[in-house]
Amino acid sequence: MRIFRGDSEGEPSDVDLLAAHVAGDRHAFETLLGRHYDHLWHVAKRTSYTTEDAADALQEALLSAHRNAGSFRRDAAVRSWLHTIVVNACLDRIRRNKARPAVSLSADEDDEPRDTRDYVSEVELSLVVERALAQLPPDQRTAIVAVDLEGRSTSEAAALLGVPEGTVKSRCARGRKKLAASLEYFRVEGNRS
Amino acid sequence: MADRESEPSDAALPEPPYSEDLLADLHAGVLPESVGDRLWPLVRSDPQAMAVIDALDRVTDQLGALGRDHSVSTPIPADIADRINRALAAERDTPAEATVVPIARRRKWAAAAAGTFAAAAAVVVAVAVVVPDGRESEPPPVALPSSETSQAPEVLDLGSDLDSGRLLTVIGSRQLGPLEDPDQLAECLRANGIDPARALLGSGEVRLDGVPGVLLLVAAPRPPQITALVVGRECGAGDPATIAVTDIG
To the nearest whole angstrom, how far is the Cα of A14 from the nearest Cα of chain B? Predict the structure, then answer.
């Protein structure tokens, strides 16, 4: 159950809530999560092979954040800090589950409409890209999330995902090509295969 | 695609029109450098090929923008949020139950011995560091009676053991403290037998068994593994100042 604690004096900041949690406030962390759960869930889903993995990784990440809140440094936003912990937990889960065959977050788990071609604004473009990303095979999607969205180098992504660098590059290449095609960025006709 | 890496450097280059697969590989750096270096000038002079490269650039630009957008969200299913909240509540209510599985650790280890830690590190379970319980007191590292409990706010207290879960929390962060100087960092890694060219995945100022140090997570030579190295603040040329080292994964 999510707790939203709106004090009459105004909402405490994220940093205040984290500090309160570290100081022993029993509800501060859940209040904080109430603000960020949907973003973190979004991030966990796009950085995981399956919905179940996303849920498990998110739980693992938030337990870690709960324990290690004292290590939070004020040079980052709390949301960014949580975001990074969730991404790392998801990638680490993929690394640990490497032997398991990839099962896609299937299209039917995404109840968004598919026909998005007429969107024009930046926000809507993000949605279009996000949906195209969700259609990629999970190995390509997670490599692209690590490298292109999260800005990790290929060597970092390789280490986090537990695969050789060449594999990360190759997955990125295939994934980007599919994205360019599904986003209709390839305009040149010719003898391409 | 990836197996093109085995092509000899003097292999004949593909002829235009170049396939999208080939161009995507070139764009992503999949092709061996010797092939890519010769192919790029040809591709740059081919408008059709460049249209594909431009499309791929546009994709990476859009993905980068998406990554920077921290407003994206998907409603979390209530059952998943409830499950996580219950797990958090359980941990909050039973902090003393945190389990510590000690692993052997020696100071001044040679980095070459790191591999022997991998198996032990893999079974270490979570160690609670901060589990507030409604009191306004300094949260103690639980189940670690012999460790120093004081904790500066900017320093991650690792307790007395290298817990892989906690070590990995610094991935993506860069807090090098006294090793901020790239030359000193490189010398420090070299002194510990680690190639400075290996990717630094994260770093943070830490306290291990009460001893202040710097945690460095570097990509291990075998990609599934990550080397976690804790060094003293004086680490540098000729002085490895190794406090602990382990491979994760």
Answer: 15
